[in-house]
Amino acid sequence: MTAVKIFHSLLKYYNILLSYYRHLMCGLFYMLQFDAEKWKLENGSEVLLYSLSTHLPVRVKPDGTVDACGDFNDPLGLPSRPITR
Q1: How far is Cα 59 from Cα 50, in angstroms, rounded to an integer?
Q2: For the segment 47-75, what is each residue's pLDDT rounded down to a tens digit?
Q3: What pTM value is reported for the model?
Q4: How many domains does the chain have?
Q5: Which of 84, 83, 82, 56 is nearest to 70 (CA)?
Q6: What are the respective helix, strand and coil percentages of the chain, to the nearest 5?
Q7: Does 56 share its domain with 25?
Q8: Residue 3: phi, psi to the nearest 5?
Q9: Do 37 and 2 share a structural domain?
């Protein structure tokens, strides 16, 4: 074999290994990201959304519209309890 053919065959195997490594790293990144966020999906977890401009909770009105003028004791506030982890 000539040096060019050897180089091309090594390059082909290098690209295969690099592709496999990228696939493993993407899977690892996904698992780490999910571990950090999985508390949101557990039973009993609630997330209270706040407006950055008014610092009040977001509320959902019965007609389906959303505003950020809610009160902490507002029955339309979603949810009315703080976050539990």
Answers
A1: 9
A2: 677 777 777 777 767 777 777 776 666 66
A3: 0.36
A4: 2
A5: 56
A6: 45, 10, 45
A7: no
A8: -65, -30
A9: yes
